Each structure stands twice: as structure tokens, then as C-alpha cells.
């Protein structure tokens, strides 16, 4: 499996999951956005950076184990 294939597969999976959230629970998504607006900017930045770090580590281990 090439890195390009893995990245496209991952992007496709993210789009499917995000699309399902908007399609199946649009009202809940609005509630979540309102809750996110109340979280301080620095906390949201930390959450985002943590998610990116976790994602990179996960992709690294998956590609290392299956590549």
C-alpha cells in the first residue's frame, strides 16, 4: 500500500464520517457548534493539535505495520 493510497483512503473515510454526522444529526451538530463556541480559543487549539498528533502517530503505526 502506497502512502498516497493510504492518505486518499483516510481522507475518504473522514468525509464519510463527517457527512454521516451532518446527514443523520444536523440538529445535534448545531448544538455541538454552540458548545464549541463557548470553549476558549487556546483550548480548541490544544484539542486540534492533540487530534493532529494522534492522527499522525496512528497513520505512522498503521503504515509501518501494514506497509
Tell me about this structure:
There is one protein chain. The N and C termini lie close together (6 Å). The chain has three helices and no strands. By secondary structure, the protein is mainly alpha-helical. The longest helix has 26 residues. The chain has one domain. The model has no long low-confidence stretch (mean pLDDT 89).
Count of the domains: 1
Q: Could you give the count of β-strands?
A: 0
Secondary structure class reads mainly alpha
Order of helices and strands: HHH
| Proportion in β-strands | under 5%
Largest sheet: none
* Helix-residue proportion: over 70%
Distance between the termini: 6 Å
Mean pLDDT: 89
Residue windows where pLDDT falls under 50 for at least 5 positions: none
Brief sketch in words of this structure:
This protein is an all-alpha fold.
Question: Characteristics of this structure?
Answer:
0% strand, 3 helices, 67 residues, flat, mainly alpha
Topology:
Layout: H1 3-24, H2 26-37, H3 41-66
Amino acid at each position: 500500500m502506497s502512502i498516497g493510497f493510504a492518505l486518499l483512503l483516510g481522507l475518504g473515510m473522514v468525509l464519510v464520517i463527517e457527512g454521516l454526522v451532518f446527514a443523520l444529526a444536523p440538529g445535534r451538530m448545531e448544538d455541538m457548534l454552540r458548545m464549541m463556541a463557548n470553549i476558549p480559543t487556546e483550548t480548541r487549539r490544544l484539542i486540534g493539535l492533540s487530534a493532529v498528533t494522534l492522527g499522525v502517530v496512528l497513520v505512522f503505526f498503521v503504515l509501518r505495520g501494514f506497509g
